[in-house]
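--- STAGE predict ---
source: upstream dedup step, 1 unique chain passed
mode: sequence only
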Amino acid sequence: MTWINTISVNEPLASILAVLVALLLERFIPISSGVNPLSMYRFICQRMANKVLKTNYSKQQALISGSLGLIVLVTPTVLISFLIYEFASYQWLLDVFVLWILLQFTTQTKIFSATIKAAASNKTLLAKSLLQSVMLRDTQLLSEIGIFKACIEGLFLRYAYQYVTVIFCYFLGGPILALSYRLCYEANHAWSPKLKGFSNFGKLASYVCSLFQFIPSALLSISFMLTTSPFLALKALVSSQYWTLYLRSVQLLLLFSVAQVMQVKTAGPVMYSQQKVRRQRLEGTKAKHGNFEAKEPSAKTYNTLMNLIFRHIIICTSVMLVLVSLSFSVLANTPELGPSKSRTAHEQRIITLSPHLTELVYSLNKGQAIVGVSDYSDYPKAALSLPRVASYQGANLAQIARLKPSHVLVWRGGNKDADIQKLIAMGFNVYQSSIKHPSDLVSEISNIGKFLDATERANQLANQLSAKITQIKQAYSQRSLTTLYYLNQYPLMGLGNDPWLNSLLQLCGLHNIYEDSLSAYPQLQVSDILRKQPALLIAADGSNQAQINTFWGKHASVFEGKYISANPDALHRFTIRALNEMERVCEEAYK
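--- STAGE serialize ---
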């Protein structure tokens, strides 16, 4: 899957390719409405409305119920999707899959086309039945021209709402924003304020959808007119009617675009739940100010619109393909992302993806070569001003690529395995750190020194560190204390089987009473601690001595052990500072 890792370096390129692949999948492998997750979601929306919305509700109660219903339905789905993305190894493939589901339009165009064919064959009842399955408006009283008009309007509006707006949201905020919009859109379709009884219940969903659709609808309207009839487009754009419609309703704006391009009549009164909803009748500016009258829609008009929409998709796709080609061209002419074998020490660009690695690189006098670090890299203070390229969520591969590092240092066990493999696949020179015991730190410093061409300094530090470890062991070889080491007071979290901290404690004969715990950091009970009666308590939670005395002083009558503090920022990191702090803790323990 190396090619996916390469794509993911360039986020705009990855997004464009994801949309193109999803469009092809949706066009040639459309998802049947029977198995489409969005159909199930719409069904859940309908069932919720049936259960929650009461006929005796006031306007305010209905509005509150609909608003809470939208939040209850959308929020969990979005949160679960977000978590899935956080742990996904190949997010680009997940983008394609999500877009394939969200961009469902082909199935409905087939229904519209079947409706047009039935109406043109004088199978009016069949046409009305087919149309009712995809439209909210009442279709039973429609004339043949009304059926043609409804199909034309429905086709273009679905193209705007289910294609263009979804893609716009994806480019703007990624798949999570696109999913959020689509869920709101489906809820709005089920609870449309145009339907009887839903005027207040569906108000929030309708409002949210309008916000999502506001900008992409204008972009579609302008681009659709420009790609079909530039002269009429310019004429419409300078008219006050166009911008008045835009501010009133994006739906009317879109229907005006169809009227302008096709020179047909659109909009006008519509029946919803046997109630007439009045809409402004629309026709193109050429017909309005010319010497001829706009045509009524027909089957031919529908087929022409289908071709124009397809042409619009082709033109937009071509533009995206040009952008992709330009991106590949730029990448092809960019120096290798990975390190060059001929780089000298002065040309090194180092990225560290763990705070302890940042600190070790500074210890090797290579801090001036660091160009990116992970969150919480706060020592020495100079590291605070460096760009952050990784967090608990993972490494930002695109940002790392832009920094063009010659050396990347990762923490095997702290960084995600998927991120490490991607960095290797992308051609970076990667060093994988793995430290569990103080003796490992000695060899690690030597290895990092070789990796960064700082062998002399690394050997010097490694020898000093090895001597310090030996010194501490010899000084306390005949000493021993049972010890409780805890990291947090509320709740009380102690040291369990973590190998690094236990090895440090054992340097001077401090034996953790919970070393055999199944967890690295178990939650403890004070009663159990008092029963075990450790000789020493070490508080590594940032508390000062006065706070420690206050917390444990209330048990002084049944506990005679000594309690001291330790600096967790120093001890918990695999650095030279940990040995210095451990030496101080040992002195305090036996004082």
